[in-house]
Task: inverse folding
C-alpha cells in the first residue's frame, strides 16, 4: 500500500461509530482506494469495532492517518471536495458524484492532490468544514429523506471513482466454456431438426412446406445459442426420436 497522489484521500471528519469507519474502509477497498484519513474520531483510535467491521480491508485502518482537525487533514491537498446533501448559504460549485470523480481524476492526472470530506453520522459536515472545500458533492437523493449513512456515502463516491479509472463492462453474457455457436453449427442443427420433423410429417400440407421450413430457419437465426445449447438441442432431439421409435 502506498500513499500515492494518483488517487484521492477519503477524509472521515469526526466519525462517531467504529462500525461505520470499518464499513467505509471496506467500501473504499472494494473499489481499489486505500488512502483513508480520520479526523478526531469520537471513540478514539485504533477502534476495535472498526477493525471487526472492516474484515478484509483492515489494512486500510492500519495505514489510516489520524488528525486532530480538518485543516490538518487537508493541508497537503490542492483541491478539496465536501460531501453534503443540505443546501448551504455559500457560493461554491456543486457537482454530482459522477462529475466530481471525473474532475478529481483529471486533477490527479495533472499532478494535483485531492481530498474528499465525509461528515459525521449525526450531523454531516459543519459549515466550517465545507467552507474549506473548493467543491461540494451532492447526491441526487429523495429530498424528503436526504441523509446518507457515512459508509453509504463513501461507497457511492468510491464506486464513481472506480468508473473513472477502470474499464466498466455495462453488459455481458457468460457463454460458458464453448462460446457462441457458429453459423455452421447452427446450420447443422437446423438440418437435423428439419430432417427429423420431415420424417414425422410435420411439413404438411405440401404447398405450405417451403414456407414452414423458411420460418423454422428464421426461428433458429433469431436465437442466440451457445455451443452448449446446440449440443443440448441435438441430444434432446435424438432422445425424442429414440423414444418415439421405442427400445431397439
Result:
Amino acid at each position: 500500500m502506498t500513499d500515492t497522489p494518483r488517487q484521492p484521500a477519503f477524509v472521515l471528519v469526526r466519525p462517531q461509530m467504529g462500525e461505520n469507519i470499518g464499513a467505509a474502509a471496506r467500501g473504499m477497498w472494494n473499489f481499489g482506494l486505500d488512502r483513508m484519513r480520520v479526523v478526531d474520531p469520537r471513540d478514539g483510535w485504533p477502534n476495535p469495532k472498526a477493525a471487526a467491521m472492516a474484515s478484509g480491508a483492515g489494512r486500510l485502518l492500519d495505514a489510516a492517518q489520524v488528525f486532530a482537525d480538518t485543516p490538518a487533514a487537508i493541508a497537503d491537498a490542492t483541491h478539496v471536495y465536501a460531501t453534503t446533501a443540505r443546501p448551504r448559504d455559500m457560493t461554491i460549485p456543486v457537482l454530482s458524484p459522477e462529475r466530481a470523480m471525473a474532475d478529481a481524476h483529471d486533477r490527479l492526472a495533472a499532478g494535483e492532490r485531492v481530498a474528499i470530506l465525509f461528515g459525521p453520522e449525526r450531523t454531516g459536515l459543519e459549515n466550517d468544514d465545507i467552507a474549506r472545500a473548493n467543491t461540494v458533492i451532492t447526491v441526487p437523493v429523495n429530498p424528503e429523506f436526504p441523509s446518507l449513512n457515512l459508509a453509504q456515502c463513501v461507497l457511492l463516491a468510491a464506486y464513481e471513482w472506480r468508473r473513472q479509472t477502470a474499464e466498466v463492462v455495462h453488459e455481458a453474457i457468460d457463454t460458458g466454456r464453448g462460446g457462441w455457436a457458429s453459423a455452421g453449427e447452427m446450420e447443422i442443427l437446423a438440418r437435423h431438426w428439419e430432417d427429423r420433423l420431415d420424417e414425422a410429417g410435420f411439413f404438411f400440407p405440401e404447398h405450405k412446406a417451403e414456407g414452414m421450413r423458411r420460418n423454422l430457419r428464421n426461428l433458429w437465426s433469431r436465437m442466440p445459442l451457445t455451443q452448449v445449447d446446440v449440443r443440448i438441442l441435438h441430444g434432446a432431439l435424438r432422445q425424442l426420436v429414440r423414444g418415439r421409435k421405442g427400445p431397439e
